[in-house]
Amino acid sequence: SDVNLLYSKGTLVISHDRLTNRVLHRLRPPSDGDILVPGGTVSVLGTTSIRVDELDGILPTVEEVNSNIREGSAMVPALGQARYIRAFSRVRPLLQPGADASDRQVTRGYSLIDHSSQLTNFCTITGGKLTTYRLMAEHASDLVAERLSNNVGCRTRELPMPDGGACRWTEPGASPKYWFQANNPDDSILCECEMVPQSAIDEIIKCAPDAGGEMTLEAIALRSRVGKGPCQGSFCGMRIASYLYDREYYRDKAGLDHLRQFLNERFKGVRSIIWGQQMAQMELSEALHCGLLGLDQTVNHGDESAE
């Protein structure tokens, strides 16, 4: 019943600007920095492929970022002088065909494994990519339904994903449009980089699954474009925390703790691209958060990610 997986770490780099209008893919065997993908207002350059054994502490490194930019610059010279605002890494769980196969040679297909001959009431769905996840869900649910004597087929291919009102704030470039359409002079902008207004924060909190509980700044960022711009949360983090204090949503040190955790998460993606304009941006951020607010002196001892 064992499933042999290998773990391949991939690092991508996010540029400040949208550098192209179409995907550019270098015509060669898969390697570092061979694809540039426009996405909203930015471009994404990637990606590396490095075998890892441990899944904790997966962060982009300077060497991985430099490799992407160096290789990508041979395809698009402007990448060598572009401003980058963030890098991020994730791990691909790949089915291992053999010990000698390189990570790039392993298929990105998926596999549904029925363990009924060795382990009852258990199956594994693994591999795949975001574009195949719903098909994977269909095959897995059909297998489970068959085991439960349910002959009704999965309908995920027919039913669109639910799109709640709060989800609209994650779309790149959409926030300014919604804000201008509303034309409400009292709806102040809290995130100037991505133009996220305070009404968006109210809607996100109201529509959250646990709206009665305390929502962190990181949870708000996951549901919006907050912290995704060039300042990487340096200004909007403080503004949103202050706004939620004014609404008495945050009390005591809760907002400061959430702000510190939010900034720690943003810094994980910034630390490997601190040069040029982004270095000046991070110097300003340090002056605001440490020199003015003294966040480095308000350590939340329960936060193991503190830098």
Please, how many domains? 3
> Span between N and C termini?
41 Å
Rounded average pLDDT: 88
The number of helical segments is 8
Can you give the helix content as a percent range?
A: 25-40%
Structural class: alpha+beta
Largest sheet at a glance? Answer: 6 strands, antiparallel
Give the overall shape, derived from the CA principal axes.
globular
Q: Rg from C-alpha positions?
A: 22 Å
Q: What are the secondary-structure elements, in order, as H or E?
A: EEEEEHEEEHHEEHHHHH
The beta-strand count equals 10
- The share of residues in extended strands comes to 15-25%
Low-confidence stretches: none
Descriptive overview:
With 307 residues, the protein is an alpha+beta fold. The protein folds into three domains: 1-97, D-Amino Acid Oxidase, subunit A, domain 2 (D-Amino Acid Oxidase, Chain A, domain 2, 2-Layer Sandwich), CATH 3.30.9; 107-161, no CATH class; 165-297, no CATH class. Helices cover 32% and strands 17% of the residues. The protein is built from eight helices and ten strands. The strands form three sheets. Strands 1, 2, 3, 4, 5 and 6 form a six-stranded antiparallel sheet that branches. It has a two-stranded antiparallel sheet with strand order 7-8. Helix 6 packs antiparallel against helix 7 (254-270). The radius of gyration is 22 Å and the shape is globular. The protein starts with a strand and ends in a 15-residue tail after the last helix. The mean pLDDT is 88.
